[in-house]
Amino acid sequence: MTSILIADDHELVRETIATFLRNAAGFEITQCADFSGALAKITANGPYDLVLVDYTMPGMSLPEGMNALIDANMPNPVAMLSGTASADVARRVLESGARGFLPKTMAPETLVSAVRHILAGDTYTPRQFLEADPANPDAPQLTPRERDVLRGLCDGKSNKEIARDLDLQEVTIKLHVKTLSRKLNARNRTHAAMLGRDMDLI
């Protein structure tokens, strides 16, 4: 059975990702909450088939932390999870040797596909996340799913309603709203909707 270690200090998000990967793909999932815990798990159990680590968990750093995890888990891959990191951080993560950058806000089926892609020996690069819009290079770069959520915000819908419309979990929508607020420098969801309209992002 394919073994995956998920290291993330946000328990709800970590458990949501772990449960989906376990149920949807049959992976054997181990969890921990920080960088030192991840290293301890790898040392105790040997290399996992894949290690997924949160960008902002306690003790994590670039490139030192990523390099340490990559060395510990050799020859198997390490990839980064993030709900808030910028495109610049994503590039730095990949340049440090990570085998993928997986936004936490990606659709569950896309997450499974990305994990399988990495396990097959490839590097997962979210092009829509990394590439700027040439027609408006200064605009915040939103993924297609973030634009879907932004449309819901602009329609005045709750997280629960947006989740139902998009067939996603409510916790995933909460992550999208948090990311949208950061990218748009919005004070709250109403402000994000207003800015989205003003910037013609939907």
UniProtKB/TrEMBL annotation:
<dbReference type="Pfam" id="PF00072">
    <property type="entry name" value="Response_reg"/>
</dbReference>
<protein>
    <submittedName>
        <fullName>Response regulator transcription factor</fullName>
    </submittedName>
</protein>
<dbReference type="GO" id="GO:0006355">
    <property type="term" value="P:regulation of DNA-templated transcription"/>
</dbReference>
<dbReference type="Pfam" id="PF00196">
    <property type="entry name" value="GerE"/>
</dbReference>
<dbReference type="InterPro" id="IPR011006">
    <property type="entry name" value="CheY-like_superfamily"/>
</dbReference>
<dbReference type="InterPro" id="IPR058245">
    <property type="entry name" value="NreC/VraR/RcsB-like_REC"/>
</dbReference>
<dbReference type="GO" id="GO:0000160">
    <property type="term" value="P:phosphorelay signal transduction system"/>
</dbReference>
<dbReference type="InterPro" id="IPR001789">
    <property type="entry name" value="Sig_transdc_resp-reg_receiver"/>
</dbReference>
<dbReference type="InterPro" id="IPR036388">
    <property type="entry name" value="WH-like_DNA-bd_sf"/>
</dbReference>
<dbReference type="InterPro" id="IPR051015">
    <property type="entry name" value="EvgA-like"/>
</dbReference>
<feature type="modified residue" description="4-aspartylphosphate">
    <location>
        <position position="54"/>
    </location>
</feature>
<feature type="domain" description="Response regulatory">
    <location>
        <begin position="3"/>
        <end position="119"/>
    </location>
</feature>
<keyword id="KW-0597">Phosphoprotein</keyword>
<dbReference type="InterPro" id="IPR016032">
    <property type="entry name" value="Sig_transdc_resp-reg_C-effctor"/>
</dbReference>
<dbReference type="InterPro" id="IPR000792">
    <property type="entry name" value="Tscrpt_reg_LuxR_C"/>
</dbReference>
<feature type="domain" description="HTH luxR-type">
    <location>
        <begin position="135"/>
        <end position="200"/>
    </location>
</feature>
<dbReference type="GO" id="GO:0003677">
    <property type="term" value="F:DNA binding"/>
</dbReference>
<keyword id="KW-0238">DNA-binding</keyword>
